[in-house]
Amino acid sequence: MRMLVTGGAGFIGANFVHYTVRNHPQYEVTVLDALTYAGNEANLAPVAGDVRFVQGNILDADLVGRLVAESDVVVHFAAESHVDNSIAGPAPFVQTNIVGTYTILEAVREHGARLHHISTDEVFGDLALDATDKFTEHTAYDPSSPYSASKAASDMLVRAWVRSYGITATLSNCANNYGPYQHVEKLIPRQVTNILTGVRPKLYGAGVNVREWTHVDDHNAAVHLILEGGRSGETYLIGSGDERSNRQIIAAILVGMGQPEDAFDFVSDRPGHDLRYSNDSTKIRAELGWVPRYGDFTAGLAATIDWYRGNEWWWKPQKAQTEARYAVLNR
């Protein structure tokens, strides 16, 4: 089986490629990545001899068409994904997440490849902090940021191409991911690398916002189950079930790194900051048998901290530029 992975040099995509090479050797993997600031060919160094890498943009219809024509399966991770960046400058999010997905869909329609589209639970908006309800596959979309709006649009395009043109495609919306190779602009790696460089962690607002955290390897195991047994046109929500406030996350990082749990600084909150995300993953568990390996967030976090401790060569070049961007935002 020939597999094309878009965005395969990014955080989740690169981990997916590693997972595929380790656990599904039946796939011949080609990675397409534009190597924007969030993509890094070094993410693929451990599997460089096992995959084909193509540098290019999913907006390039000719290139996408050629690669899809050579593929049986397309797994579409490529996206602009950072909420703060989307608020500061939404144009790349519209181009990559919407127009780029359209470009892939047209190539899939022409060449008959099977598509899996990776999305986020942020498309659903947020839930009340004091509630117990969860997002389901039938929750109405209510995106809050340019990022989540662009991902919502891409999801709708995939569904429309399934219905109108009969392509074979599945979708998944996952909770917040964490793990190796995550860019230091994101919450967990930013605070871990702050501590490693002697800087106090930063907490948005009062830190009450709640997220459900899923280890990237658990996410990618779920994607492979969908590739194997998912039904075309269906959406599957992925989430570990472990919900924590941002303040609890900061405290867990500090304690896990031998620091007092209150050794952080408050900074200005993100505009339109969603309150709570929580996914009901009953469908993928019941239909496809998915069970997260890291159901215990503490164990997954410890492994993640160890990875950043041992891979300063990877994250150090990103750090200064990332913090300079946050300084402009006063966050």
Helix-strand layout with pairing:
Elements: E1 2-6, H1 11-23, E2 28-33, E3 51-55, H2 61-69, E4 73-76, H3 83-88, H4 91-111, E5 114-120, H5 146-165, E6 169-174, E7 176-178, H6 187-196, E8 202-204, E9 210-215, H7 216-229, E10 235-238, E11 243-245, H8 246-256, E12 265-267, H9 282-288, H10 297-310, H11 312-329
Parallel strand pairs: 1-2, 1-4, 2-3, 4-5, 5-6, 6-10, 7-9, 8-12
Antiparallel strand pairs: 9-11
Q: Can you offer a commentary on this structure?
A:
The chain is α/β, with parallel strands linked by helices. The chain has a domain at 2-178 and 215-238: Rossmann fold (3-Layer(aba) Sandwich), CATH 3.40.50.720. It is 43% helix and 17% strand. The protein has 11 helices and 12 strands. The strands form 3 sheets. A 7-stranded parallel β-sheet has the order 3-2-1-4-5-6-10, sandwiched between helices. Strands 7-9-11 form a 3-stranded mixed β-sheet. It is globular. The model has no long low-confidence stretch (mean pLDDT 95).
Entry keywords:
331 residues, alpha/beta, 17% strand, globular
Write down the overall mean pLDDT: 95
CATH topology-level name of one domain: Rossmann fold
Strand content: 15-25%
The secondary-structure element order is EHEEHEHHEHEEHEEHEEHEHHH
Q: What structural class do you assign from the helix and strand content?
A: alpha/beta
Distance between the termini: 45 Å
**Rg on CA atoms, Å:** 19 Å
Spatial sequence of strands, sheet with the most strands: 3-2-1-4-5-6-10
Tell me the name of the CATH class of one domain: Alpha Beta
